Amino acid sequence: MSLIAAAALLVVAEGPVMVVSAPEAEYDIGYVELVTGEDRAAIKAIENCEKLPASDPARQINHAVALARVGEFDAAREKFDAAARNADRFELETTSGAWVDSKVLARRGLAMLDGGEFRGYEALAVR
Predict the structure, then answer these.
(1) Fewer CB atoms near the end CB (10 Å): N or C, the chain?
(2) What is the average per-residue pLDDT within 102-112?
(3) 1 inside domain
(4) Residues 35-52: what's their mean pLDDT?
């Protein structure tokens, strides 16, 4: 994965949701779709990305976020867990300018799932 990857923190309900992106890269991991609340389109974009391996932590995190937002919590947990256990780890930039380790973002996602922070989000039209 390119070091250009960036993570954005969005506010949803009471907690932040990670969205990882590489807007300047040549691959699409659903950033625009996730930011605009088009979660099913994000899933499609992420799953159709041929330029970045499915094992990439940024791709796994975005996939997990999109899946959690549409209520597919078990699948989301699998993706967050895979990113947390991934041998690759990257520092990803947040929209606030902070750099966060991909494993930290993945563990935050797991904690959010455990805390039920994604529940009800799938009912919202936009963030």
Answers:
(1) C
(2) 94
(3) no
(4) 92
